């Protein structure tokens, strides 16, 4: 070791100067990193058509939406002394899970929803209240042109002979050109005098959007909740929601007198604010934080709900919705939402 030279001891002034330069460079590098991160975030929020490759990339970006993702990070950090971990047993989520299991309150996330095939559900699942706590995500869907392929009120307007007028008003309302509540009253007024039997006929003509059954089964298998909130009508949606096994359903109600429609809506109208409120209420009732909520819609009356959710998905949507949603899906297949949730590769 004799060939080694003794370390040079720098003067205190030189040491201070080097440390100051390092701090300045480090601050500059941190600032550049923040700018790059903000640029990536802005690019990620552009509403563009989503293909298979972009869906896979979105899954990696949005992995915190996957049930248990935050727990995985806690478990890794618990065993890493560099992150303040204390080894085994350091994750609070694991300790809470053990306490629930000992108390007999732990539910297997696949046990309650297992066995679903296709579009058939357990039946009496639909509620507008609180079905209990959930461990997965909350997905809230619009109904017309999202959950189903049709505009439900147009099916009724066809029987009333007012289809052309109703279709025009609906299109303008979905583009944000008309107030939704006022436009709904105008459209419902054209249905006055219709026999309630037309409701059953309209229900028979409603067709679920492709991929809906796969989406419902995937969300339930992950321990999540899924519901529909609509500016349409309970009389048309309730039987379908029950058959599909949805957890929540909220819509307007048609006023009926003597077996005929009066042309008025019974009760408050479910507008854009009503849809956002439904998302908040169902998340609270299920014990799901808003950071694990997804909203899917196509019209201007869905915008507040899409912005309120952690992930707002424009589904075959109008231009105003595509511009403001987090991500856009242009293929009429709801199973693509599973990839955004990280529930499908």
What do these coordinates show?
Residues 66-76, 91-115 have a biased composition (Basic residues). Keywords: Amino-acid biosynthesis, Hydrolase, Magnesium, Metal-binding, Serine biosynthesis. It comes from Agromyces albus. Its EC number is 3.1.3.3. The chain is of the alpha/beta class and 345 residues long. The protein has a domain at 138-340: HAD superfamily/HAD-like (Rossmann fold, 3-Layer(aba) Sandwich). The protein has 14 helices and eight strands. It has helices at residues 12-44, 52-61, 69-78, 92-102, 152-160, 163-174, 180-189, 197-205, 212-221, 234-244, 272-286, 303-308, 319-324, 336-340, and strands spanning 138-141, 225-233, 248-252, 254-257, 260-265, 293-297, 311-315, 327-329. Strands 3-2-1-6-7-8 form a six-stranded parallel beta sheet, with helices on both faces. A two-stranded antiparallel ribbon has the order 4-5. Strand 6, helix 12 (303-308) and strand 7 (311-315) form a beta-alpha-beta unit. The chain is elongated.
């Amino acid at each position: 070791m004799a060939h080694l030279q003794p370390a040079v001891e720098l003067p205190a002034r030189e040491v201070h100067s080097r440390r100051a330069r390092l701090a300045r460079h480090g601050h500059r590098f941190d600032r550049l990193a923040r700018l790059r991160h903000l640029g990536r975030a802005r690019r990620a929020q552009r509403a563009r058509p989503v293909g298979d490759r972009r869906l896979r990339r979105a899954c990696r970006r949005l992995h915190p939406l996957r049930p248990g993702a935050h727990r995985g990070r806690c478990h890794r950090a618990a065993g890493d002394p560099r992150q303040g971990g204390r080894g085994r047993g350091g994750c609070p989520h694991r300790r809470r899970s053990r306490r629930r299991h000992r108390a007999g309150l732990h539910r297997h996330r696949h046990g309650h929803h297992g066995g679903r095939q296709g579009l058939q559900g357990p039946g009496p699942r639909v509620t507008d209240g609180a079905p209990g706590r959930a461990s997965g995500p909350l997905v809230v869907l619009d109904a017309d042109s999202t959950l189903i392929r049709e505009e439900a009120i147009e099916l009724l307007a066809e029987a009333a002979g007012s289809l052309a007028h109703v279709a025009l008003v609906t299109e303008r309302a979905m583009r944000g050109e008309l107030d939704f509540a006022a436009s709904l009253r105008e459209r419902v007024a054209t249905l006055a005098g219709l026999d309630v039997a037309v409701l059953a006929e309209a229900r028979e003509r409603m067709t679920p959007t492709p991929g809906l059954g796969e989406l419902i089964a995937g969300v339930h298998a992950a321990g999540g909740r899924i519901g529909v909130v609509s500016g349409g009508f309970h009389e048309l949606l309730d039987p379908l929601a029950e058959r599909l096994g949805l957890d929540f359903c909220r819509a307007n109600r048609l006023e009926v007198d003597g077996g005929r429609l009066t042309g008025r809506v019974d009760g408050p109208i479910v507008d854009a604010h009503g849809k956002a409120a439904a998302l908040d209420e169902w998340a609270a009732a299920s014990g799901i934080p808003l950071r694990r909520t997804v909203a899917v819609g196509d019209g201007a009356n869905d915008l507040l709900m899409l912005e309120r959710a952690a992930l707002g998905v424009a589904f075959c949507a109008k231009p105003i919705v595509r511009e403001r949603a987090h991500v856009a899906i242009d293929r009429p297949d709801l199973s693509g939402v599973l990839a955004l949730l990280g529930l499908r590769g």
